[in-house]
Amino acid sequence: MKIAIAQLNPCVGDIEGNSRLALSAVEAAEKNKASLLIFPEMFLTGYPPEDLLFRRSFLMKSAAALKKFSRAIKDKKVAVVMGLPWQGEGGLYNSAVFIRDGKVLDVYFKSLLPNYGVFDEKRYFIEGDKKCVWWLGDMRFAPTICEDLWDPDSGIVASLRGESLDFVINLSASPFHMGKMRQRLNVLKKASRRLGAPVIYVNLIGGQDELVFDGGSMVVSSSGLISFVPQFKEGLFYTSIPLPKKNIVPHFLRKEEEAFHALVMGVRDYTRKNGFSKVIVGLSGGIDSALTAAIAVEALGKERVVGVSMPSKFNSQETQDDVRRLSENLGIDCHWIPIEDIFAKFLAALHPLFKETDFDKTEENIQARIRGTILMAISNKFGWLVLTTGNKSEMSVGYATLYGDMAGGFGVLKDVPKTLVWRLARFYNRLKKRQVIPNSIIRRPPSAELRFEQRDEDALGSYSVLDRIIDMYVEKHRPIDEIISAGIDADYVRRVVRMIDRAEYKRRQAPPGVKITPLAFGRDWRMPITKALD
Asked: Which end of the chain is more exposed for a tag (fewer CB within 10 A), N or C?
């Protein structure tokens, strides 16, 4: 039996477009003589549809599209399993429908609903309470949906043990974070052992707001990986039952490579699905804006990326020269809008009130806000999307200016620690086999250049140590004493933790950005702004 795996990229809410994409996949699967075509979880509506599921009109549109799709494939020999919401007697279910001969023969309801991290499924769905075993020819197989297999000893899946299945299918919408492929493989191997059958895992692909779905669909037996669909590759792929008995050695992407592909996909889909013709990046001559521009060019092409340099007297000639080199290397247009005169007018206007005070972060932030205003004015005039350039290290401790460098529509590096920014810049140059991002940018000590002789690490300490603290405190929820016991200076740990806790009001106002770590600010992180802590 030939089975088609639809590792495809739907758009949330575009039910008609997703239906057309599904019909094209049916045509291709039929042409390639597949007996079964499997789509990912919630493919018809896109995932996650969030509170669209509370709209009755949305659910009615989904139900009507299912009927239309089923009729359209009535004369096809290929059977289809598709994920979508299903309004049942007990409520709304996350479901998989089995379609043959133009009819929905059966419906499976997801039995384990994740309600942690980025998931809020219990807000929308109720748990299914019946198992399904379906026949196709002389093959017996069972449907499962994503979380069902992450705990195969619970829920309906546990009742499938002993069913003598030829295979199990898993419709999934599993978001990306670095290292997740190995985690998925281990989960699927365990599920295959428990159920006594190989698992055909079909994962969604594409960017949706902060989330990126990386695909990586695979066929797994109890002993290991049988076949594997590359991450970040959209298309229709095939496997056959019975499966080959020999396992393959997984060659998953390395950390920098998968992170880079995820960032590119996140930018491409956020821009495309939201209808922006171009993106705009404020280029400072620093590594964050350089990497952001490089990712944008990789995602959209150089014609759709515009740089803007907004120097003041605090910007060195070296960083301005690097902006020119970077723009030329990327092949993008770059506009120069000096802000010194604008800054002087701000200072003059504020002088009656500020005349008895010293130059401090107030004046530094005015410059950042002038730049943010210029970028947003260009965005308003031409309808271009402003990509912010702040990284996770900065966002963690609040080393960013509200309505300044935080002004924009999408934060490309929002979940990228500074130490990873450097590695990604070097990876990109290796990928391109030339020095696209000038080495002078990569090697230069980071500076906001909002005053003379400014260095980020004078205010923040070593980024390598800072990122260790952020990893332990934010991503792993380690207590302060445990972080200190890891050999980090106690006073520094406490200072960083205070900055992280106090910066929540800024993070809450930051634009969305691509999630690439296990815990990203945004959907994963739900801390109160107002809180009394020791």
From this structure: C
Query: Is 146 annotated in the active site?
Result: yes
To the query of whether residue 334 is one of the catalytic residues in this protein, the response is no
Amino acid at 179: G
Tokens linked to 498: 């205070």
pTM, two decimal places: 0.94
Exposure class string for 332-354: b at 16+ Cβ within 10 A, else e:
bebeebebeebbeeeeeeeeeee
Over residues 502-522, the pLDDT tens digits come to: 999 999 999 999 999 999 998
Region for residue 461 given its phi and psi (left: phi exceeds 0; alpha: psi -120 to 50; beta: otherwise): left
Q: Which residues of 222-237 are buried (b: 16+ CB within 10 A; e: fewer)?
A: beebbbbbbbbeeebb
Active-site annotation holder among 11, 121, 131, 146: 146
Q: 61: alpha, beta or left, given left = phi > 0 and alpha = psi -120 to 50?
A: alpha
The DSSP code sequence of 374-407 is HHHHHHHHHTPEEEE---HHHHHHT-S-TTTTT-
Q: Which amino acid is at 64?
A: A
Q: What are the domain boundaries of the chain? A: 2-253, 259-457
Tokens read off for 493: 């740990």
- Structure tokens given for 149: 């297999």
Each residue's pLDDT tens digit, 136-146: 999 999 999 99
From 110, 131, 414, 506, the catalytic residue: 110
Least Cα distance to 372 among 282, 301, 273, 445 occurs for: 282
**Token pair of 358, please?**
């010293």
Q: Has domain 2-253 been given CATH number 3.60.110.10?
A: yes
Fold type of domain 259-457: Rossmann fold (3.40.50)
Write down the catalytic residue from 11, 41, 278, 515: 41
Instruction: Please give the average per-residue pLDDT across 456-470, as a whole number.
Output: 89
CA gyration radius, the chain: 26
Equal fold, 2-253 vs 259-457: no
Q: Is the dihedral of CA 55, 57, 58, 64 positive or negative?
A: positive
120-140 per-residue burial string, b: 16 or more CB within 10 A, e: under 16: bbeebbbbbeebbebebeebe
Structure tokens at 187: 């989960």
Write out the two tokens for 317: 């000639």
**Within 10 A of 364 (CB to CB), how many other CB atoms are there?**
18
* Count of residues making up the chain: 534
